[in-house]
């Protein structure tokens, strides 16, 4: 009696192939639908990043084409003494481009933070992204006019969202 029960339940289960096929089809449809949704989201993110990069490139070209732009040399010191670069300022559009070479990659959990300095007041201007070759670029368009600031400083911070610098400056440039 016990031997027949598993056989009869197996036979009963095999008599329901429609349910099995319907369940498998539903699972596959859900999986492929989810995959399609993920691909669409990735494509949208890529398009948005490409649009942002294109806008920044156009702004940089416009900045470089300005005749009243200022070029300020930027030299690293301390842990980044081999770093060097420039700040291109355009007072008429209140924009600046920071370009630095030779920055050491920050340790995990650390970031280079750019500050606009007025006297003893530091305003965070952005996080300086570093590529694998130690190259960094940051386009600035602050709310307040750049001419109101005395200097630009770059520090290595453990908290990229800091409201004031805690790390030592790795580069400083006078904006006067």
Strand content: 25-35%
Total number of helical segments? 2
Shape: elongated
| Main sheet specs | 8 strands, antiparallel
| Record field, number of beta strands | 8
Strand arrangement in the largest pleated sheet: 5-4-7-8-1-2-3-6
Radius of gyration: 28 Å
In the CATH hierarchy, the third-tier topology of the largest domain is known as: Immunoglobulin-like
The helical percent reads 25-40%
- Separation, N- and C-terminal Cα atoms: 98 Å
Overall number of domains: 2
Q: Please, what is the average pLDDT?
A: 83
**Which oligomerization state do the chains in this entry correspond to?**
single chain
Unreliable residue stretches = none
CATH architecture of the largest domain: Sandwich
- Name of the CATH first level of the largest domain: Mainly Beta
By helix and strand content, what is the structural category? Answer: alpha+beta
The run of helices and strands is: HHEEEEEEEE
């Amino acid at each position: 009696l016990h031997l027949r029960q598993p056989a009869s339940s197996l036979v009963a289960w095999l008599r329901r192939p429609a349910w099995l096929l319907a369940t498998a089809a539903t699972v596959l449809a859900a999986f492929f639908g989810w995959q399609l949704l993920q691909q669409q989201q990735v494509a949208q993110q890529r398009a948005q990043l490409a649009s942002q990069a294109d806008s920044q490139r156009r702004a940089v070209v416009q900045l470089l084409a300005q005749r009243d732009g200022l070029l300020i040399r930027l030299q690293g010191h301390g842990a980044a003494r081999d770093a060097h670069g420039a700040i291109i300022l355009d007072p008429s559009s209140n924009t600046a481009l920071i370009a630095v070479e030779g920055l050491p990659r920050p340790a995990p959990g650390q970031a280079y933070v750019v500050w606009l300095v007025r006297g003893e007041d530091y305003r965070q201007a952005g996080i300086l992204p570093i590529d694998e070759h130690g190259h960094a670029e940051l386009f600035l368009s602050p709310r307040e006019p750049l001419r109101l600031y005395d200097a630009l400083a770059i520090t290595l911070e453990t908290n990229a969202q800091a409201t004031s610098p805690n790390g030592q400056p790795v580069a400083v440039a006078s904006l006067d």
